[in-house]
Design a protein that fits this description.
By secondary structure, the protein is an alpha+beta fold. 34% of the residues lie in helices and 20% in strands. It has helices at 2-25, 66-70, 72-82, 100-109, 123-128, 164-173; strands at 36-39, 44-46, 55-60, 87-93, 115-118, 132-133, 135-139, 145-149, 188-189. The strands form 2 sheets. The protein has a 7-stranded mixed beta sheet, with helices on one face. Strands 6-9 form a two-stranded antiparallel ribbon. The chain is globular and about 45 Å long.
Length: 194
Amino acid sequence: MKLINKLFLILLTVSLFKLSTLIASDESVRKVENFKLKDYNGKEYQLIDFKNSKAIVIIFIATQCPISNAYNSRMEKLYQEYKDKGISFIGINSNKQESIEEIKAHAKNNNLNFIILKDYNNIIADKFKASVTPEVFVLSPEFEVLYHGRIDDSRKEEEVKSQDLRNALNEILEGKKVTKAETKAFGCTIKRVN
């Protein structure tokens, strides 16, 4: 009987350890590694280039996704509103079927003035575990994820009730912790190579 109790305690301890490890690894705040990508003009950028920003907004975007496209003007408005407040904006296109030429034309046609990088083979999307377009990650200057999720709560701008990205950026600028650090991003699935 004592042997059975000891085995039970060992199994329980191991199970609780595994559960605590799973919970810890699924925390919303995590750190991102530096990476290098080129924009549609061939200019190379590294995440470390933006370390002097108050925050770095990374948005996974697409040219062919109607949901991402519904956010084009909102993304540009946010960029224009926050760029002079020390917040950097970086668009990343990880879709395998969307070429550099298409990304360049799409940015021009939609007046997107923030940096847009091409993520060949969806390497950076995989590192971020990004799944849809648009999907936002707001990083601290130390590359910790301060906010992850949607831009706001409706594809239709006139139906927006919660401006999640704007709220997060305002809290960061005020030196506060982001109240709602995780929201559910929605959009088109990133089309990966594998």
